[in-house]
Amino acid sequence: MAETAYQPAWTVIDLGALEHNCREVARRVGTGVKVIASIKADAYGHGAVACARRLAQAGCFALATGDVAEAAAMRDAGIRTPILVFGSFLPQDVPYLLARDLIPTVYNFETAEAVSRAAKVPAPVYVKVDCGLGRLGVALDDAGIFVRRIASLPHLQVAGLYTHIPFFDDASRARTEARLPAFEALADSLARGGIGPLVTQALASSAVLTGLKDQCNAVCVGHILYGLSSMAQGQADMSAFRPVLREIGSHLIHVAHHPAGRDVAIGGHYGIANAMVTGVLPVGAQHGMRGAAPRRTAEVLIRGRRAKVMSVTLEHTTLDLTGIDSPRVGEKVLVLGGDGPARIALEDVAAWQGRPPLEAAMTFSKRLPVREI
Ligand SMILES: *Cc1c(COP(=O)(O)O)cnc(C)c1O
Fold first, then answer.
1. What is d(CA 44, CA 76) in angstroms, rounded to the nearest whole number?
2. Which bin fits 212, alpha (ψ -120 to 50), beta or left (φ > 0)?
3. Which CATH superfamily is domain 32-226 in?
4. Mutation test residue for ligand 1: of 60, 220, 358, the one with most atoms within 8 Å of CB
5. How confident is the model at residue 298 (pLDDT cuts 50, 70, 90)?
6. What is the pLDDT of residue 266?
7. Do domains 32-226 and 245-372 have the same CATH topology?
8. Which of 148, 97, 138, 87 is CA-nearest to residue 119?
9. Cα of 220 to ligand 1 centre, how many Å?
């Protein structure tokens, strides 16, 4: 991009924080437990290729995504780490996956047969087991027979066995804990039957955050790598993990001084009584900016001080800058970021928007130029 390229707004992605978080996960799970990094959904909105490259450098055992195109983009970017594809493909897509050295997840016989047909030498696959989430996976009760059946196919090697039993509070954590022994018993019985060695994985971010351990030899984490909590608000100590989405910023393109009584209409506020100063950012709904939920007020930071968001339209955000000393066109404004007490966290933005932090982060993804630090 040319040096002078017009950038109405930007996001800053902190790859150092990503690496720190990855090492913190590895430290918590201990040696002997592999870390599989979930980079699905464009690395939870943080940019899959850049994040994957750094996670691979940081020593992740494998990367995982549900999106075949995203997985292929990793290979095109020269990333050589093993990549597990969670699902979201048809048996007819299997040759495409194998040609790119991607590891398919298998949970039906049609896909397993497609792997064995397409591969010249036994191709590694992971089997996903449904331990009660009711989404993708072979039902736990049928999994033993299924794995033995597909393991006998000529060009297929069962290399991993995983399940996903996410939880977000104490009650759902207890449910997950109750389901783990059956999965561990399945892995044990397959190992005793000579299938493997298998990579086995059941636990994700919430387990690492709350110290839940199991007998598997891998974890697969997403949320905490990006500094996001997978637990309900206030249910986990996130202080050891750093936010990867560090900053969303823009510049004032306009400042307007409205005298008392002037009839202006900004975001549904008609006919202002007092004199006020407004400022405009060239970032709007099209860039992922969102207004506040009913009865909430969104804020931004200018010179380390908070200013209220008055309206968000398709291309612009209008701010109430009354009380800021002589705001100037061109001044930097932070929608997210900053330091110390003058900091707007993703959690603040999410609370104003009335949705989870991950959703707030995802909204901005791919809409703004990214600076990596
Ligand atoms: C997304 C996903 C994970 C990671 O979950 P987090 O809560 O983000 O850590 C693990 N396993 C599977 C199968 C997933 O789809």
1. 20
2. beta
3. Alanine racemase (3.20.20.10)
4. 220
5. very high
6. 66
7. no
8. 97
9. 6
**pLDDT tens per residue across span 160-202:** 999 999 999 999 999 999 999 999 999 999 999 999 899 999 9
Report which secondary-structure segment, H or E, holds 361.
helix 357-364
Out of 164, 208, 235, mutate this one to test ligand 1's pocket (max ligand atoms within 8 Å of CB): namely 164
Question: Is residue 135's pLDDT more than 90?
Answer: no
Nearest CA to 360 among 338, 343, 344? 344
Q: How far is CA 196 from CA 119, 127, 159, 187, 188, in A?
A: 19, 12, 6, 9, 10
Percent of the chain whose predicted confidence (pLDDT) is above 90: 83
Domain borders along the chain are 32-226, 245-372
The architecture of the domain spanning 245-372 is: Beta Barrel (2.40)
**By alpha-carbon position, which residue is closest to atom 12 of ligand 1?**
164
Average pLDDT, the chain: 93
> 323 — alpha (psi -120 to 50), left (phi > 0) or beta?
left
- How many Cα atoms within 13 Å fall on the side-chain side of residue 143? 30
Q: Report the alpha-carbon distance of residue 182 to residue 240 in Å, rounded.
A: 32
Mean pLDDT of 355-366: 86
Structure tokens at 103: 């590891």
Q: How confident is the model at residue 230 (pLDDT cuts 50, 70, 90)?
A: very high
Residue nearest ligand 1's atom 6 by CA:
222
The whole-number pLDDT of residue 12 equals 94
Confidence (pLDDT) at 1: 44
- To 10 degrees, the CA torsion angle through 309, 311, 314, 316? -50
